[in-house]
Write a structure and sequence with these properties.
The structure is a single chain. The protein is about 50% helix and about 20% strand. By secondary structure, it is an alpha+beta fold. The strands form 2 sheets. It has a 6-stranded mixed beta barrel. A two-stranded antiparallel sheet has the order 2-10. A hairpin with a 4-residue loop joins strand 3 and strand 4. It starts with a helix and ends with a helix.
């Protein structure tokens, strides 16, 4: 039988313990741990949710890695075509972890109605385009199909629909300026087949998706000429490694860039979330630890007579320390339980009911996304338990300062 654990259990279930002077202090310590764990879970879930959602949206619009001509000059508009017949298309033979390679071509234009106009980037895609991302954010209509020889259907954002005051299945006129300034602009009529809303205002306000054949026709390109290639990876965490491998595999006249390299300011911004989370975790664990130290000291001072008796019966300091550390650990576990219960409940409510909203212009999302992995949840709980336990070891040495003769005298 574990003697120390047996004594610790007797202390916890004792009636005197529940009505002692230390009870309010113990409740405060448990509350501090529960509150700290709740805040840490929410901080981790919101940071991970924002990072995941923003990078997924950017990958949905741009792919994980883009392959274009070296003279593209970081422009969103495809100026110089690339031959579609490449060694890496439709698949990279020497690189694992690549889900898909798809073609695209961009053309700048203007959408016009009788009363309004809006500048757009017309992104032309092929029939094998991965529509998974846009299906998630489709609010009306359907995803266009580009299997026929020519298709005028387009997918347009709800932002553009509201600004231009048009509806689903309306026909809209688009004007495209030609590369030769001496030639007149080209006009094309498109049909609004679907309306999407990603909440990513930077792209929603000007991105229109249509058939790549239209862009090829506007640029006088052949069917084998495209603006570039988008590479979709299986795992975003490998983007730097795969980006370097892709760059080494492509022709010397081509250039590849990951979305992290194309939009460094956005990814540096979301990377700062990790620093904020670590700061919050450190502060919460420190507060919880200080409260537990206070509770432990009060428990020890309240049980001075018991300590004296145990020492008189032959118990050593280490054995008595274990009794109070077991006691304190039970309080930490109780605080962690309630913290996890409250924290996960709040995360679940936000996930299913989208109560907290954000400004898409600032945060690139309309509602606060939340996500927490089992590994993050497990490490957060184990880390908090270990840190608080280690912080309690030093104050537990006060047991060695208590002398049996003096403590029993007043029993």
């Amino acid at each position: 039988m574990n003697f120390e654990l047996f004594i610790a259990k007797r202390i916890v279930v004792g009636k005197k313990y529940k009505s002692s002077i230390s009870t309010p202090i113990i409740k405060i310590a448990i509350t501090a741990i529960a509150l700290g764990m709740t805040i840490m879970l929410i901080a981790v879930a919101t940071a991970a949710g924002l990072q995941s959602k923003i990078r997924d949206k950017m990958a949905g619009f741009k792919g994980y890695v883009q392959i274009v001509n070296f003279d593209a000059n970081n422009s969103d508009v495809s100026v110089t075509p690339i031959q579609k017949t490449q060694d890496f298309y439709p698949t990279f033979k020497n690189i694992d972890g690549i889900k898909k390679v798809q073609i695209f071509a961009n053309k700048a234009g203007i959408l016009r109605t009788k009363t309004d106009f809006e500048g757009i980037i017309f992104k032309g895609v092929s029939s094998n385009y991965d529509w998974t991302f846009f299906k998630e954010y489709l609010v009306k209509g359907k995803i266009p199909s580009f299997n026929s020889s020519r298709n005028r259907e387009i997918l347009i954002s709800e932002t553009l629909v509201n600004r231009l005051k048009i509806n689903l299945y309306d026909t809209i006129l688009a004007t495209f300026v030609k590369s030769e300034t001496s030639k007149l602009p080209s006009n094309r009529k498109f049909i609004v087949a679907g309306i999407y809303n990603t909440g990513f205002a930077q792209f929603d306000k000007n991105m229109m998706i249509g058939d790549i054949k239209e862009v090829q026709n506007l640029n006088n390109w052949t069917e084998n000429e495209v603006g570039g290639f988008e590479v979709i990876l299986d795992n975003f965490d490998e983007i730097s490694e795969k980006g370097a491998q892709i760059y080494n595999e492509i022709d010397a006249t081509l250039n590849s860039k990951t979305i992290v390299e194309m939009y460094p300011s956005i990814f540096e911004w979301i990377q700062l979330f990790d620093n904020n989370v670590w700061f919050i975790i450190a502060i919460m664990i420190l507060i919880a630890g200080i409260n537990m130290i206070t509770a432990l000291l009060v428990l020890i001072l309240e049980r001075v007579q018991m300590i004296g008796i145990l020492k008189a019966l032959g118990s050593n300091n280490q054995s008595i320390q274990k009794i109070f550390l077991y006691n304190a650990s039970a309080l930490i576990l109780k605080g962690l339980f309630w913290g996890n219960f409250i924290g996960l409940s709040l995360i679940g409510i936000q996930h299913f009911f989208k109560i907290i909203t954000l400004d898409p212009e600032t945060y690139y999302v309309a509602t606060m996304p939340v996500y927490i992995s089992f590994s993050a949840f497990f490490l957060l709980n184990i880390g908090t338990l270990i840190c608080c336990f280690l912080m309690l070891i030093i104050p537990s040495f006060i047991v060695s300062k208590i002398h049996p003769s003096k403590s029993i005298k007043f029993a």
